Amino acid sequence: MHHPTTRATARHADESERSRGIQRTALVAIITNTCLTIGQIVIGLFANAFSLVADSAHTLSDLITDLLVLVAGRRGAEPADRDHPYGHGRIETVTTLLLGAILAGVGTGFLWSSGLRLQHMDVAPSVHPAALYMALATLLAKEVLFRYTLAASRRLKAPLLEANAWHARSDAASSLVVAAGIGGSLAGYPFLEPLAAAVVGFLILHMGVRLAWKAVRELIDTGLSEQDVARIRATIRATPGVIGLHDLRTRRMADRVLCDAHIQVDPRITVSEGHQISDAVYLRVRAAHPEVQDVLVHVDAENDATMQTAPIGRLPERTEIVQTLSSLLEGKLSTPPRVQIHYLGDRIEAEIIITANDITGVDHKALGLRIDELLAAQPQYRTVSVLVHIAP
């Protein structure tokens, strides 16, 4: 049998490895952006390239978001606790939302600044060619960092890293704008910088809105696509022992997919067999759909989603039922009978199990009459059966 402790241990090991991968990627980005920020400021001041100095501020914003990713990657992998019983995966989601908002703001800033520059094209500062080399070096470093981080995000299934990768691409785009502006200024075509800034600004804005919207959908527990849900549903239905499925629900938490389902099983199997079937569903879904990290399976004895039976009031609990059924035997047994109860269709189907020795002291005809009287007087009982257990 599959134990919950084993599930939690394996899941925590996977999350810890993923967290270390996110942190390694973030550290590479932090080192890269620190070096670039220092280089842009020094060369920008030396070459009188104020656009390069401004671009260093953008790189500095990348450095700040890299630190956010580092913290989120570490905190997001922490195991569940009393205050966060489902884990800390939402930290990654919130950070992704924040980075998406930053991207949208950067894109809007590019659009705004490009509009202002187009209105003042006569102002073109004289710059040193060294600024162009620094802008190209920054562009190359940012593009390499973008591809490295994006590959890591896909390998680790981390939307947080994907958002940060596109932030690096936005900074590469700003470096492209700076390089185009400096190159255009050196070549006598100053209008190229604001024109390129407008195009890149729109692309960055679009990417930021897309990532932010993706995070918002996750925060409001948007389910998987119909195709993904259909595949999970097919896996559950194919599990031996499952005769029905309803109320399959899914949601995302960072890289994880969580789902819960109500399965219908034969109403007269034992509790332990029903639990075994639920474990089989869990293992099959995890094996066939690696992105699913947890499956909560509710076992139903019947399809409670489509029950049409009119309710007849409160059904008695086990203690009251056992007392009622024991009275039918009028104290003829040496030991209390074993009773199996089936709550089906808002009715009770009960089975009294007695030994072969006890049945010899019971008046069968009188017992049958008392059972008929009970069924007539108490409509919550559908059937009452007496079964004889023959010991080996």
Record the SSE blueprint.
Layout: H1 4-46, H2 50-76, H3 90-119, H4 129-156, H5 159-187, H6 192-219, H7 226-237, E1 244-253, E2 256-264, H8 271-288, E3 292-300, H9 318-328, E4 338-344, E5 347-355, H10 356-359, H11 364-377, E6 381-389
Task: Describe this protein's structure.
With about 400 residues, this protein is α/β, with parallel strands linked by helices. The chain folds into three domains: about 5-220, Alpha-lytic protease prodomain-like (Up-down Bundle); about 225-300, 2-Layer Sandwich (Alpha-Beta Plaits), CATH 3.30.70; about 320-390, Cation efflux protein, cytoplasmic domain (Alpha-Beta Plaits, 2-Layer Sandwich). The chain is built from eleven helices and six strands. The chain has helices at about 5-45, 50-75, 90-120, 130-155, 160-185, 190-220, 225-235, 270-290, 320-330, 355-360, 365-375, and strands at about 245-255, 255-265, 290-300, 340-345, 345-355, 380-390. The strands form two sheets. The chain has a three-stranded mixed β-sheet, covered by helices on one side. The chain has a three-stranded mixed β-sheet with strand order 4-5-6. The chain is rod-shaped and about 115 Å long. It starts with a helix and ends with a strand.
Q: Regarding CATH, which class of the largest domain?
A: Mainly Alpha
Number of helices: 11
The sequence of SSEs as H and E is HHHHHHHEEHEHEEHHE
Helix content bin: 55-70%
Number of strands: 6
CATH superfamily grouping of the largest domain: Cation efflux protein transmembrane domain
Straight-line N-to-C gap: 29 Å
Q: What is the gyration radius calculated from CA atoms?
A: 34 Å
Mean pLDDT: 77
Number of domains: 3
Share of β-strand residues: 5-15%
CATH-defined topology of the largest domain = Alpha-lytic protease prodomain-like
Structural class, please?
Answer: alpha/beta
Could you name the ranges where pLDDT drops below 50 across 5 or more consecutive residues? none
Strand order across the largest sheet:
1-2-3
Largest beta sheet, briefly? 3 strands, mixed
Shape: rod-shaped
Tell me which CATH architecture of the largest domain applies here.
Up-down Bundle
Main location: membrane
Subcellular location: Membrane
Protein name: Cation diffusion facilitator family transporter
Domain Cation efflux protein transmembrane: 27-220
